[in-house]
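Question thread 4412

I'm putting together a teaching handout and wanted feedback from people who do this every day. The idea is simple: show students a protein as raw sequence, then show them the structure tokens that encode its fold, then repeat with a second protein so they can compare. Below is the first pair exactly as I plan to print it.
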Amino acid sequence: MVPALVRPAFRRRAPATAQVLADWDAIVGPAVAAVATPRKLFAGTLAIACTGPAALELQHLSAQLIERINTHLGKVTVTRLRFVQDAAPAPPPPPPPRPQAVAEARAAVASLPEGGLRDALEALGRMVLTRGPE
């Protein structure tokens, strides 16, 4: 079911297009969804925006992607994929620093003199403490 927030925007589009846009991550998986975004479905051709290198890789996966999309829709709606070169999707914004991380970073640089170095080290400490071990 399409969330209530996006339902008005999808009224202008065909139901199949709206379903592909809303469920893209679930249809193609997180790896493909990270590098490609569906743009338009017209006359059986789904336009997908992606970077040049990703387009080459996705072209090799075309048959599998078409099968996944049509299986998700329950009927043969997409017969062809067209890749449109576009900028890579923006990475997600970094998480906001935890209050505890801010306090720890500030305490760690408290003995340093005021200035740019102290500010830079405090910002680095906040980032490292917020992200944690990877």
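The second pair follows. I'd like the answer to focus on this one:
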Amino acid sequence: MLALALEATSAFGLTGVEIRTGDVALFTALIDALDLYPVWRRRLIKDFNRKISLEQDLERLTLATGSTRNEYEGVLAALAGSDRKAALALVTDLMSIAGTTNVGGRTVAEIADRFLEQSTLKGGALPRDALDLIKRFLAISGDPHGSIARLRALAADAKLDITAAIDAFESRVGFMAARGVETGAMRFSTSFGRGLDYYTGFEFELHARDNGGEPLVAGGRYDGLMTQLGSMTPIPAVGFSVWVETLTRLGGKPAKGRVGGSAS
């Protein structure tokens, strides 16, 4: 897929483009290995995918619990220590008593998740050692091979079970090299993401050097897209978007017969 994207930029006369990459599966593996509360896991992964104040949220989740009370204090107390199934049952019962099935367009499940999140956040802070590990992880960047070495060192030092995700990343880099991609020139960052929460693995953007504000081509693996659109089961998918106007403006019209193929 990345090789095809590079062929697209080359067809417009643009070579030596900047390749920015990341892998949300690595972050997901890290959060799973830290064995956090489910609501913390969902919140952090959502923040990472959408790029909504992840750093600020990490700090906020480590603050000491405050004494502020709200109108749902009783519900939050009842949910303390509960799992999602118990929270869903309680909220379902409460809404049944009230004679309603949704509030403000939110379903029972969404309301239960929100209450459970508030209960967990009120019950305690994100452990400081977990925060430190997440920050160390997010600081890893550089060429893929050096990043793989640093990831393995972090996993060994912190005794984190993320080997499978690192192995998959390393294998992918090897396949890219075999396909002719100059992996040593790639820029990898554990904090890189496209800001879309349906991505589930490798992500990339191609930028013109010295003019990198707007991507030329961008995409990755998004196995979560179809479930967000209503599919009952995940459907593996990869693909990318091409900014044809930007390619034309920076590189000119494509050479005849050089653009083709499927992106997904």
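Top answer:
Good format. For the second protein you could add a caption like this: The first helix runs from residue 2 to 11. Confidence is low (pLDDT under 50) at residues 64-71, 258-264.
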